[in-house]
């Protein structure tokens, strides 16, 4: 089954409440992203999820992220309960679209959330979940190419090397 969705998501320019800028120390999650899904995630601390992100809808978002003083990279973020895994706690899981050689638990991460991709879903199979995440990644990559979204990568929010 191939998921077909638009590759450009969101208006031509970020509109309120975006950008949403959050920062926190990367914490250990459930250990599923990289191991089970092949899509590693950096988890935001519960304080950020519970306070800074409490008023935005559950779902999948895209934007930019930076770990410590590394370069700013595109990201997709799942904010929610992950019904396929039956989480009992809401989480914010950021997949930075880059292949890192090591984990970065305990390091500072800055995230600029620029737009909503889709609502959270429950899946009938792990394969369907992974396929949808891959569609989210492609949509983020294409959507971030637009000038107003790309410009956020160079904003003063991020530490530029």
List the helices and strands and how they pair.
Layout: E1 20-25, H1 33-37, E2 42-43, H2 46-52, E3 59-67, E4 73-80, E5 91-96, E6 108-118, H3 126-143, H4 147-150
Antiparallel strand pairs: 1-6, 2-5, 3-4, 3-6, 4-5
Textual characterization of the structure:
By secondary structure, the chain is α+β, with helices and mostly antiparallel strands. The protein is built from four helices and six strands, in the order βαβαββββαα. It has helices spanning 33-37, 46-52, 126-143, 147-150; strands at residues 20-25, 42-43, 59-67, 73-80, 91-96, 108-118. Strands 1-6-3-4-5-2 form a six-stranded antiparallel β-sheet, with helices on both faces. It is globular.
* Amino-to-carboxy terminus distance: 43 Å
Q: Structural class of the helix and strand makeup?
A: alpha+beta
Secondary structure tally, helices: 4
Strand content: 25-35%
Give the total of beta strands. 6
Task: Report the average pLDDT across residues.
Answer: 87
Contiguous runs where pLDDT drops below 50 for at least 5 residues: none
Key features of this structure:
single chain; 161 residues; alpha+beta; 6-stranded antiparallel sheet; 21% helix
In brief, what are we looking at here?
With 161 residues, this protein is of the alpha+beta class. It is built from 4 helices and 6 strands, in the order βαβαββββαα.
């Amino acid at each position: 089954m191939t998921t077909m969705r638009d590759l450009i998501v969101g208006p031509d320019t970020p509109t309120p409440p975006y950008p949403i800028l959050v920062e926190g120390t990367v914490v250990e999650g459930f250990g599923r992203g990289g191991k089970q899904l092949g899509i590693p995630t950096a988890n935001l601390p519960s304080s950020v999820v519970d306070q800074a992100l409490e008023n935005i809808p559950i779902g999948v978002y895209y934007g930019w992220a930076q770990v410590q003083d590394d370069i700013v990279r595109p990201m997709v973020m799942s904010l929610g309960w992950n019904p396929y895994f039956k989480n009992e706690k809401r989480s914010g899981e950021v997949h930075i679209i880059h292949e890192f050689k090591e984990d970065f638990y305990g390091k500072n991460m800055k995230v600029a959330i620029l737009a909503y991709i889709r609502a959270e879903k429950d899946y009938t199979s792990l394969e369907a979940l992974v396929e949808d995440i891959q569609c989210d990644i492609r949509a983020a990559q294409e959507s971030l190419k637009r000038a107003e979204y790309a410009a956020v990568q160079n904003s003063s929010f991020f530490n530029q090397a």
